[in-house]
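Work Package 3 (structural annotation) set out to generate three-dimensional models for the target panel prioritized at the project kickoff. During this period the team completed the workflow that converts sequence records into discrete structure tokens, so that structures can be stored uniformly alongside our sequence database. As a representative example, we reproduce one entry of 122 residues exactly as it appears in the project archive.
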Amino acid sequence: MNNDLFDKKEAQQYLNIFGADKMGCLWEDFVKDTSQTLEKVGHQSREDIRLKFHSWRSSAKVFGLKSFVQECENIENMVLNGENIENIKKIVDKCKKIFHNAQKEADQFFNRCANGKISNRK
């Protein structure tokens, strides 16, 4: 599946580099951390918000989360440009929805890694 939420080709490139076992574990860790932190990130300082979305932008690219990557970049730029914090929080809320929708699509791909369907895990 290659669409605005999840780019299977991008994810497959990194899967080929890291291998299924490692990629499945990385995905599980990424989802857990991102899901938990997204709920709190709107209450952090502007700089903490910028740093978190900067980090997510590069990590999410590895997992093929195209729309999430774009929104992370938008939020990072909004902070850098001194945008009103309330406007930033609105985009953070939009970003949460995008992440959860993209996660559903990516889970189908990455769960194959974690469950051993494309790895040597038993």
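Residues 85-114 form the longest helix (30 residues).
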